[in-house]
Amino acid sequence: MNIRLKQKNSGLIKEVPLGFSWTTLLFGPFVPLVRGDLKWCIIFLIAAFLSSGLSWVVVPFIYNKIYIKELLQKGFIAADEYSSNILKIEGIII
Predict the structure, then answer these.
(1) Pairing, β 13-17 against β 76-78
(2) How far is Cα 5 from Cα 77, in angstroms, rounded to an integer?
(3) How far apart, in whole angstroms, are the C-alpha atoms of residue 84 and residue 4?
(4) How far is 58 from 73, CA to CA, in rounded Å?
């Protein structure tokens, strides 16, 4: 399931997946790197090192939600009513 987020200032719209991240399961920390999320790329690499790779199985369940919360903190808002309702149902926004 994808939602659309719009940046308040520039009007830039991003379509962001919500839920389990198959790409993160397959490609690990390269997903945040490609999305320009260097902070979480480094965190996931450190977590993978410390957990002997076990975090690569856990992270796909949480990364998309983390990424959406980061975008909301950076000034993105729901681009449409559908996205707003999904964010409310998932407990990401109130």
Answers:
(1) unpaired
(2) 5
(3) 9
(4) 24
